[in-house]
Amino acid sequence: MTPPRFIVLEGVEGSGKSTQIRLLSAWLAGMEVPHTSTREPGGTAVGEAIRGVLLDRDGLEMPAETELMLMLAARAAFVREVVSPALARGETVLADRFDLSTFAYQGFGRGLDLEQVKQMNAFATGGVEPDLYLVLDLPAEEGTQRQARDGKTLDRIEKAGTGFLQRVREGYRVLSEGEGRVQVVNARGTPEEVHARLRGLLQGNFPETFGIPAV
User: Fold this and answer.
1) Residue 148 CB contacts under 8 Å (≥ 6 apart), including other chains
2) Residue 7 CA: distances (Å) to CA of 164, 199, 204
């Protein structure tokens, strides 16, 4: 059995995370690598309910601190009900967002104290950490243009504006500096081109899990 890995895709809105999760899942299925694909906030009954409050309640305003604590409440269930059980079963976990999003969005984007955010997050996760974060990097305005072209209805956080999303993008860049578990990936190009970049990084970092089997 190959070692299971916890892999997270991160990035600003419109960077293509959901598409890449689907492509990676299909790739792993083709190699018969057992895995779970999921998203955050969400992935559990309580997480999806919190997601609805955080993202889908148009016009609902809340303090940044409230937003943070809702995110962390969803994460506590996500780790205990989805991530830890899947890893224990020997399954690799592919997640659309995890705690790096919180550091970038609520820390850099909303301006909350980053060290305090990290301390609160550690309580929510119980120490569970991804093996690798793949940050899909794209200028905020390009992500917004992609969403408009695709006809996407913006959620509450996406409506925070380009300035907010630019701070988030810069946050991801700062968080990646000197952190080997965070790798920034160019999100420009076709979905297939970006997928090839991600696949190469996974195979390079964890060949025992993602290497192509010998024929």
Assistant:
1) none
2) 26, 12, 14
Return the minimum-mean-pLDDT range out of 12-26, 64-78, 94-108, 145-159.
Answer: 145-159
All structural domains of the chain with their residue ranges: 6-210
Q: What CA–CA distance (Å, rounded) separates 172 from 105?
A: 9
CATH architecture, range 6-210 = 3-Layer(aba) Sandwich (3.40)
Find residue 35's DSSP bridge partners. 92
What share of the chain has pLDDT > 90, as a percent? 79
Cα dist from 143 to 13, 67, 150, 165, 203, whole Å? 6, 22, 11, 9, 27
DSSP secondary structure code for residue 56 in this structure: I
Packing angle, helices 140-149 and 162-176, rounded to 10:
120
CA–CA dist 41, 102 (Å, integer): 10
